[in-house]
Amino acid sequence: MIEARELTKRHGSTTAVDQVSFTAKPYRVTGFLGPNGAGKSTTMRMLVGLARPDSGTARILGAPFAGIPNPGRHVGVLLDASATHKGRTGRETLSLAAMTMGLGANAVDRALDRVSLSRSEANRRTGGYSLGMQQRLGIAHALLAEPAVLILDEPANGLDPSGIRWMRTLVREFADDGGTVLLSSHLLQEIDAVADDIVIMGGGRVHAQGPRDELVGEGSLEDLFFAATADVSREEVGT
Q: The whole model's pTM is what?
């Protein structure tokens, strides 16, 4: 489970995240929906201890991320798929992570197979990877220790249509097996296709949240999104 309670982050006079609260539960995919600049990534960084909130709290599996022993074994995180050492191969990248977490070499092979990166692709330097391959490697890193929680920021970026279907199936199966998934996207259709619960952000604030079917009802997610964020300009929400 992931719990955010009144998380707030300021950059000078700008409030990037304003009292954001939500819960992501096991057996469910929670879609974190909002345009670029809505505060989603900053919120995720606070969840995993990469940014310190000015106020509020974040807990994963009942504790702050920094308080989880060997957190990578329990929480899989993908925030920036391009943030790898470009001179290392995909396999080396995962092997170093596995060593850090105290995992065996078989964990690397299992993760590579799970994201369909071939032996030859895994042995290439990541500086030559396409964006889609970077995303697959990042997801493999998140899955390396078979964690209980996945936090994925825009995981569909760079994936082709078959890759997007694969990613949707992966997160669906992860949740169905009891995992907790928090998946952010600025694309309505990506959230609509996979989320059980939805948190809608705009301008650093949560505008609506709840089970998808209850929120949307007989309407569409697009209608809900623009109704919920009516006080955010169309320019701010990327239309």
A: 0.89
